Amino acid sequence: MKILVTGGLGYIGSHTVVELHLAGHDIVILDNLSNSMINVHQVLEKICGRSLPFYEADIMDDKGLREVFEKESGIDGIIHFAAKKSVSESLDFPVMYYENNIKGLINVMRMVEDYKVPYFVFSSSCTVYGEPDNVPVTESTPTTSSPTPYGNSKLWAELMITEFTKLTPHVKSVLLRYFNPVGAHESALIGELPRGVPSNLMPFITQTAAGWREQLSIFGQDYNTPDGTCIRDFIHVVDLAKAHVISLDYARDNDFRTEIFNVGTGNGHSVSEVVESFERSTGVKLNYRFAPRRQGDVEKIWADTTKVTQVLGWKPEYSLDDMSRTAWKWQLTLGDKP
Ligand code: NAD
Ligand code: WQD
After folding, report:
1. Please, which residues have CB within 8 angstroms of residue 143's CB and are 6 or more apart in sequence?
2. To which pathway does this protein belong (predicted)?
3. Sign of CA dihedral 148, 151, 155, 156
4. Which domains does the chain have, with CATH numbers?
5. How far apart are the first and last CA of the chain?
């Protein structure tokens, strides 16, 4: 199949490009480089050993987007990663989030409509569950509005895609609710590139271990969890990338309108367990302290993965230690603090 990957030079997008290549798909990459580097394109061509068409284009620019579809006829599927993803930034710049994550999505849906694209895979998030009453969460756990524009953008996007798909018989959509993606490709040629001070746990850990940051603060030790720290479902980015490829196969081979899948490992790990895993798997001692809770943090969430394993036939292969190890291997390629 010929697959357009929006945001294909970003963290999850770049890993997915590699998995699409391994599965034998034709790939077209689109990215506006707002949160990625152009050299990732060359690196992807090196990993894949073939040239990969790339368009520096913005999904908010409907004319530029249409040009890509005019040049690349016969797109069978779109994996739509392109979005802004910082929860805290979305509180400072809500309109920027509505524009990228909602207006951008509408422009992409317009292309699905006009160019009769058959398959659409969307990056959603476990953030749509908010603070769940029960864990693990299934796809039927109620979704809830978020205190942040980022979180709401995922909820609204899911609603729009579901309605649009219902009314547009030629397209099938898959909404993947990611839990906490971490780690990097084994080659350490691609990985996560946070700009500025990371707000996510794993990049903060690796940057602290590398001496870019002085100390990791573990936010909250008084949660109602076995060790008092928050619990998340960390998933290796390569496993997550593979779920996209399998989603496309599923969409090609099955009759449905929109399907939603949790993409996590099904295992909850506490923040302290992640720190222990990092130290154990890398042999590097981490400088950390316990600090007050971070406002807005969910206490505990992890995925019920029954649906994704039974229906898609996907299952994760990487352990938490693999996630720590590959994240560290990637960090070591980044050299001194920029
Ligand atoms: P990322 O920022 O690394 O990748 C997104 C890519 O999209 C970047 O390369 C960026 O330059 C590009 N982009 C952003 N706005 C664009 C626009 N208007 N036009 C064209 N390109 C644009 O983020 P990621 O971690 O790879 O996340 C990918 C998707 O997964 C996002 O939709 C994100 O919301 C979602 N998601 C991420 C996480 C996570 O923790 N990383 C969790 C759940 C969901
Ligand atoms: C994980 C845990 C922190 C940093 C966010 C978004 C969510 C989703 C994934 C996209 C929490 C703790 C963190 C640090 C810490 N993204 N932590 N010290 O909060 O689950 O989710 O990213 O959709 O929408 O909200 O991920 O990595 O920020 O935090 O103690 O320096 O690590 O308090 O308990 P989170 P995270």
Report:
1. 128, 129, 130, 155, 158
2. Carbohydrate metabolism; galactose metabolism
3. positive
4. 2-182+234-263 (3.40.50.720)
5. 39
pLDDT value for 298: 97
Calculate how far, in angstroms, residue 207's C-alpha sits from the geometric centre of ligand 1: 21
State the catalytic residues: 150
Residues 6+ apart with CB under 8 A from 263: 176, 177, 178, 179, 235, 240, 243, 303, 308, 314
Separation CA 21–CA 109 (nearest Å): 24
What are the tokens at 321? 């230690």
ipTM higher than 0.95?
yes
Q: Whose CA is nearest to atom 10 of ligand 2?
A: 125
Tens of pLDDT, residues 240-257: 999 999 999 999 999 999
d(CA 107, CA 57): 12
pLDDT single digits (tens) 253-305: 999 999 999 999 999 999 999 999 999 999 999 999 999 999 999 999 999 99
